[in-house]
Design a protein that fits this description.
The protein has 455 residues and is of the alpha+beta class. The protein has 18 helices and 8 strands.
Length: 455
């Protein structure tokens, strides 16, 4: 049996797939990612809209079996009969309601008919009706009052639930967002437990969001409360785009975020000198070279660690070395070309002369690159007297040095790989000496008497 997703324990306990599980997490045996098949799993067709157990392995949907079924955590759960093809029972997470259903195909198009509600309709009655519907389908006839198959919870029929919105959101962000797993964690830990997976999206109001934000804040996590609020705001905006909420009706609008003391750590000229001296004395040349590289190029740590010698282009005429960062290594998912400055180019040549791997910063196994550099970085910072400095602060220091030397923000943004100048502005910091020089420019606008009096 294939391993089920973590969302619905009912599926694992009852040994049957529900549509909610399959939509939230693709099954590896059917071409999905993030899950795997059990060692003894039988190979199944790759293109399957909804995986089902072989009919001989499915239980017979008797009254006693249906009575034991419990509502899933999210959406709907479907259980299929072992005797009649495509005949099953659907259980709702929001209401606990159980209905008999039958799927059939007419003219190449699949339809689903709700036969009746359990226990009002007994299993034998539902079976007789299912047999009649399938008989009509074989003759190309439709059953009465049928409609095309609907997606669960909110697309057709009942209002969309919070589970449906969470599922749609994760389907979207997994395509492009590197932090999609963090979004999923926040949804599981905070959003769905607070609102309830079956709660209609359209019923969420400002007071509900405020209560969750306040609850997380009071637990001692004010910054986490702000992050959850930002995610909820994005999810409800997406709900408006999907038509699950009225336009301009985001319940997160107007919620005041907790104050945050943003870090403004960057290296001064003296700090850079101490850091370079500590790198010279560090025993692991790979870590020392990595620190220099981050400061000289302003790149992200992951980009530096994954960089290979094949990512660089050299111009024999000018001697220019250009780092061509693959789109897979950039945050914008676009190829980023950066010509190396003089100190970075000199460091690149010295490392290449001693290269034993295809990576600039190889691990002990030259087939792989370095991954964990925290211990070496901490040692360098301690030697330099810069405890508390983060590796990412080197990127801020790079941007600040360029801004203080008069490089336009737009150019700095290009070097950093930013698409918006506002993002670059957050990276650029100005030291006191530069502010003093800028402030003294006021003297040029003052009359001579004012200058003399000041003197």
């Amino acid at each position: 049996m294939l391993r089920h997703c973590r969302l619905t324990e009912d599926c694992r306990r009852l040994g049957a797939f529900c549509y909610s599980c399959f939509k939230a997490h693709a099954i590896a045996a059917h071409g999905g990612a993030g899950t795997s098949a059990a060692p003894d799993a039988e190979p199944e067709p790759k293109v399957v809209r909804k995986p089902r157990q072989p009919r001989g392995q499915r239980p017979t949907l008797t009254h006693a079996f249906v009575a034991r079924l419990e509502p899933p955590m999210f959406g709907y759960a479907h259980y299929w009969d072992g005797e009649i093809e495509r005949f099953g029972i659907r259980v709702s997470a929001a209401t606990g309601k159980k209905v008999w259903i039958i799927d059939y195909t007419v003219d190449g198009r699949r339809y689903r008919k709700v036969l009746g509600t359990w226990p009002t309709m007994r299993d034998d009655e539902a079976r007789d009706l299912a047999i009649k519907v399938r008989a009509k389908a074989r003759n190309g006839e439709h059953a009465e009052e049928i409609a095309p198959r609907a997606r669960p919870s909110g697309v057709l029929g009942a209002p969309a639930s919070m589970w449906h919105l969470a599922s749609e959101w994760l389907d979207k962000v997994r395509r492009y967002k590197r932090t999609a797993s963090a979004d999923e964690s926040v949804i599981r830990k905070y959003i769905l437990p607070h609102f309830g997976p079956g709660t209609p999206v359209s019923s969420i109001r400002l007071i509900h969001v405020v209560k969750l934000h306040r609850q997380i804040t009071d637990s001692g996590s004010p910054i986490a409360a702000n992050r959850v609020l930002s995610l909820m705001a994005a999810m409800f905006t997406y709900a408006e785009q999907l038509g699950l909420r009225p336009q301009n009706d985001n319940p997160c609008k107007g919620v005041e975020k907790n104050p945050e003391n943003k870090r403004e750590e960057y290296l001064t000229r003296k700090g850079v000198a101490r850091l370079m001296e500590a790198c010279e004395l560090h025993s692991d040349r790979r870590i020392a070279n990595l620190v220099r590289w981050l400061l000289f190029t302003g790149c992200r740590r992951g980009q530096a660690l994954a960089a290979g010698w094949s990512d660089f282009e050299t111009d024999d005429e000018t001697g220019t070395i250009t780092w061509v960062k693959p789109s897979a290594h950039t945050k914008t998912r676009e190829t980023h070309r950066v010509p190396l400055n003089k100190p970075a180019a000199e460091l690149w040549r010295s490392m290449q002369a001693q290269a034993t791997s295809r990576f600039l910063f190889p691990a002990d196994d030259p087939m792989h690159h370095l991954v964990d550099v925290k211990k070496g970085w901490k040692s360098i910072c301690k030697r330099a007297g810069l405890e508390g400095l983060h590796l990412y602060d080197l990127r801020h220091s790079y941007a600040s040095a360029l801004v203080m030397s008069g490089v336009p923000l737009a150019v700095v943004g290009k070097l950093l790989g930013h698409t918006q100048t506002a993002t670059t502005l957050r990276y650029s910091h100005v030291d006191d000496d530069t502010l003093l020089v800028a402030s003294n420019n006021l003297i040029e606008f003052l009359p001579n008497k004012a200058k003399a009096d000041g003197a």
